[in-house]
User: Fold this.
Amino acid sequence: MIWLVLDLQQLLTDGTVWSLPPEHCVTLLQPQSGRVVKRAVKEAALSAADTLLVYYVGHGLRAGSDDSLYLSLPEMEDSDEGLLLRGPGRQRADGR
Assistant:
């Protein structure tokens, strides 16, 4: 799936589809830990002026009484290691 991420990065920054400055497009390929992902998302969120687009290709875990979705890496077994998705912009494919 690396090619998919790189293609999206190219589309967002090449000026023909969306002219996002390359320094505002953070791409993580095969991150080594959940901390790396959490740090990158947090830094991007803090520096975003109005919109934050996060495109994630990978694994997810469902946990908790509300069946929350956590982004995770292959070696993660505990939802505490993942990145919890919440907020008005998140909606499950089944509408819930």
Q: What stands out?
A: The two ends are 27 Å apart (CA to CA).
